[in-house]
Amino acid sequence: MKVTFEQINILGEIIYEDDYVKHYHFQEMLTRYDSNYIEFKKMPSVEVFQQWEKSLREFHRKNNQNHLKFKFPPNEQIPDTLKYYLKRVQYNIGFLELYSIQPSQFSIRKNGSVNVQFVTEEQLEPFLKLQYNEDVKYGVNFAKEKQQLQLRRFNDADTYFLIAYFEGIPAGYVEVIEKESTVEIDNLFVLEEQRHKGIGGHLQQAVMEKFPNKTVILVADGEDTPKDMYQKQGYEYQGFQFEVSKVEIF
User: b or e along 203-219 (b: 16 or more beta carbons within 10 Å of the residue's beta carbon)?
Assistant: First the structure.
């Protein structure tokens, strides 16, 4: 099954859309960059980018948001002229990679010390504690807002949280979003001291077993090492998307 970035779940509301852009905004969590940004449908010129840059800056400042983030059309390289401008004004330039796999194609070596559970009321507290301790490095305000967001999402019918224990100690987690034909793996995390023990693989295996008839999809940082793990596990590369962001002090 061919999948596209259009199938990736976005936490945020489209507050403006035309033939060229979509503007996403998430009032419930203004500090979440992945929910507050502009996505270009067509690759902009430098002049067009600057127009939308000014628009987003003014909008974010009215909402006390100090970041700017933009996504570009999938599977298109940023032109050199625009890339030169982005670097000159100190944007961080990165790209995402989209992957998919059929559950029947996924397998791991079992580790009896790893136990994965779908989060219920009983596991909610350790799940949230793990997330808070990871999120707080992005700021206390961000971590607290994320906790409230997760408490709301916990009751969503299409959202699942999973927690992994290693020898009885909470060691990792993942979030899952179910749609009609796909299941998206998001925010897969394993404590640094617990890595290389197969915990991430066990979290994925639990998803595969829960949803054997759906295509499993995920987005990976194109410049980070987890994408190498996904490739080794048999995920199929489906495309890329460039994005840029920066923080402004005002």
Answer: bbbbbbeebeebbbbbb
List strand residue ranges (DSSP E) for the chain, in order: 13-17, 21-25, 37-40, 67-71, 92-101, 114-118, 159-166, 169-178, 182-190, 215-221, 236-247
Residues 6 or more apart whose Cβ sits within 8 Å of residue 2: 238
Q: What pairing do the DSSP bridges indicate for beta strands 13-17 and 21-25?
A: antiparallel
Beta strands in 142-235 (DSSP E): 159-166, 169-178, 182-190, 215-221
User: Global pTM?
Assistant: 0.93
Within 10 angstroms of residue 82's Cβ, the number of other Cβ atoms is 20
Name the β-bridge partners of 173: 163, 189
* Strand partners of residue 162: 118, 174
pLDDT digits (tens, 9 = 90+) for 140-162: 999 999 999 999 999 999 999 99
Tens of pLDDT, residue by residue over 71-121, are 999 999 999 999 999 999 999 999 999 999 999 999 888 999 999 999 999
Local structure of residue 6 (DSSP, 8 states) = G
Burial letters for 93-125: b for 16+ Cβ neighbours within 10 Å, e otherwise?
eebbbbbbbebeebeeeeeeebebeebeeebee
Residue 249 has a pLDDT of: 79
